[in-house]
Design goal:
By secondary structure, the protein is mostly beta strands. It has a single domain, classed as Metal Binding Protein, Guanine Nucleotide Exchange Factor, Chain A, CATH 2.170.150. The chain contains 1 helix and 10 strands; from the N terminus they run βββαβββββββ. β6 and β7 form a beta hairpin.
Length: 132
């Protein structure tokens, strides 16, 4: 599977996803992605490789020992890692290909803020709302 940042300058390949896709609601993921939660999955380092744009990667240590890697051009957060672990934490939404898996759990829901949840009552549209 291939993946990339928003501007396309940084690319990667994943042989397979090795851990379940999880929606992480922790405060750091919400802030890093400017979203209610971040779809993540563990990928063993042997199954992950950068294919282009490594010189554009920058890192931020968001908590002790955890590095978040992002494109310095467009800001897309692509992976996170703890260097002592055998896997990287893939930001699944940056995949260009369908992983063929669906999320299996939500974690760190205790960090949710009430104004980011809609309880399913906010309308959903395939694109823009009618009349826009």
């Amino acid at each position: 599977m291939k993946g990339s940042c928003l501007c396309g300058a940084v690319g990667y390949e994943v042989d397979r996803i090795d851990m379940p896709i999880t929606h992480c609601h922790c405060r750091n993921c919400r802030k890093a992605h400017a979203a209610s939660y971040a779809p993540t999955a563990g990928v063993l380092r042997t199954h992950f490789r950068w294919t282009r744009g490594q010189a554009l990667l920058r890192s931020f240590e968001s908590s002790p020992g955890k590095l978040r890697h992002f494109c310095s051009n467009c800001g897309s957060h692509l992976v996170a890692e703890r260097t002592q672990q055998p896997q990287v934490i893939l930001r699944v939404a940056t995949l260009d290909d369908d992983p063929g898996l669906t999320p299996s759990q939500h974690i760190w829901c205790a960090h949710d803020v009430p104004w980011l949840t809609d309880g399913g009552v906010v309308p959903h549209y395939p694109e823009w709302p009618p009349g826009r």
